[in-house]
Amino acid sequence: MGETGILGGTFDPVHNAHLAIARTALEQLGLERILWMPTGNPRYRQPAQTPAVHRVAMLALAIEGEPRYAIDERELAPGHSGYTLDTLQALGGKPVLLLGADQYAKFETWHRWREILGLASLAVFARPGWPASDGRARFVPMAPLDISASGIRARLARGEDVASLVPPKVAAYIRQHRLYR
Length: 181
Fold this sequence. Notes:
Elements: E1 4-9, H1 16-29, E2 33-38, H2 52-63, E3 69-71, H3 84-91, E4 96-100, H4 101-104, H5 113-119, E5 121-125, E6 138-140, H6 149-157, H7 168-177
Parallel strand pairs: 1-2, 1-4, 2-3, 4-5, 5-6
Helix pairs in contact: 2-7, 3-5
């Protein structure tokens, strides 16, 4: 069985840069599958703006039709710590943790980050304005996309169109449920 990539985040909302990272990971790293891991509301970070039910629904719409993608909702379970270490220990194996360069720049602040290095390998993807890798992770070349969930939420709050930033079914879901207004 091939390697599994783990792509975590609030996905509030999932957007085209997330999908580009996943596609690039499959192609460049030769991964067998990507587990999309939406985060819950751990005490150490700001909670997602949108309830998990909507974030998971948008994620399902964004990845439908790609058999190598699956959603793992374990971090949304009540009482889950939200720590990557706990998730990796529960998963077993040695997956590839897929990180944007912005997240990787903060990696040493993560809970028990050294232990994470023993449970997963790291692959870092370019983000505008962030440095690449330092040798501890595989740097995955990719044209950086200047798309962020916070930017999308801000545009939607102003009533602006985001059709070029999210998959069409996600844009329709956001409109239908009047999210981010």
